[in-house]
Amino acid sequence: EELSFPIAEFGASGKGRVVLTSSIGIAIYPHDARNSKELVDRADKALYYAKNAGRNQVSSYTRIKNLLPA
């Protein structure tokens, strides 16, 4: 399930609003990787996929692996 709400909102007196969001990449051992290096690499790929999809997203390697270039 995707998170689509800001993590926090801060009001700065007289300076407008600051919104903090989060992008998350998930990889699961042993389903997505055989060792810790692969696990971190694949979580990182999922993270950057989430950021490129518009930020403030959650992306799992399992769901995106077929969409990535070979």
Account of the 3D structure:
- With 70 residues, this protein is of the alpha+beta class.
- 30% of the residues lie in helices and 23% in strands.
- It has helices at residues 36-52, 61-64, and strands at 8-12, 16-20, 24-26, 58-60.
- The strands form 2 sheets. Strands 1-2 form a two-stranded antiparallel ribbon. The protein has a two-stranded parallel ribbon with strand order 3-4.
- β3 (24-26), α1 and β4 form a beta-alpha-beta unit.
- It is elongated, with a radius of gyration of 15 Å.
Give the percentage of residues in beta strands.
Answer: 15-25%
Q: In terms of structural class, how would the helical and strand content be classed?
A: alpha+beta
- What's the rounded overall pLDDT mean? 84
| Spatial strand order of the main sheet | 1-2
End-to-end CA span: 26 Å
Number of strands: 4
Shape: elongated
Low-confidence stretches: none
Instruction: Determine the number of helices (DSSP H or I, runs of at least 4 residues).
Output: 2
* Main beta-sheet strand count, sense and barrel state: 2 strands, antiparallel
Helix coverage percent: 25-40%
Rg (CA only): 15 Å
Element pattern in H and E? EEEHEH
